[in-house]
Write a structure and sequence with these properties.
By secondary structure, the chain is mostly helical. The chain contains eight helices and two strands.
Length: 165
């Protein structure tokens, strides 16, 4: 009798703890290779917003980044983000980018997550901005026009709503 096992990983590409957990998750995926299927589901931490992130939320998240750096050695964050990127509390665009990448090429899901996280945490780019996400998709070799169409399409929004439900 064959047992099919599935590891369900609920994440958000803009979740700072997910960024810290990433090396462990990658080792776990490698260890489970051939023994279990890994299913990534988006958790969608923060709905769409055009409003600047309140100062107290920015301070809280910066404190979280520092705490992660202390608890998970080797985890890096570029704090220039808070000065340079016009932060908003909006992670759904990045989540939709993962869905759009997945729809264009099922093998592009993990690279898109990686690209979003590196852009956000290391390069101080804002993954709440469509322009950042389209640029990342282009860098991954995805069709920029098709990606841009899918990014905010009703079916992509519905797919995210279904995943976070």
């Amino acid at each position: 009798m064959t047992t099919t096992r599935t590891l369900i990983y609920v994440h958000d590409p803009m979740c700072s703890w997910c960024w810290g957990f990433r090396p462990t998750f990658e080792r776990l995926c490698d260890a489970l290779s051939g023994e279990a299927t890994v299913m990534r589901l988006l958790g969608g931490l923060a709905a769409d917003s055009d409003q600047p992130m309140p100062a107290e939320m920015q301070t809280r998240l910066q404190d979280t980044w520092r705490r992660i750096q202390q608890r998970i050695p080797g985890t890096e964050f570029n704090f220039d983000f808070w000065r340079d990127a016009g932060p908003r509390r909006s992670t759904w665009p990045a989540c939709r980018a993962v869905i759009a990448a997945r729809r264009l090429d099922s093998d592009a899901e993990a690279p898109m997550i990686d690209a979003i996280q590196r852009a956000y945490y290391l390069l101080a780019l804002n993954p709440s901005d469509d322009s950042t996400l389209i640029s990342l998709a282009t860098q991954l070799g995805l069709d920029a026009d098709r990606f841009a169409q899918l990014l905010n399409a009703p079916e992509t929004r519905q797919a995210l709503a279904d995943e976070v439900a």
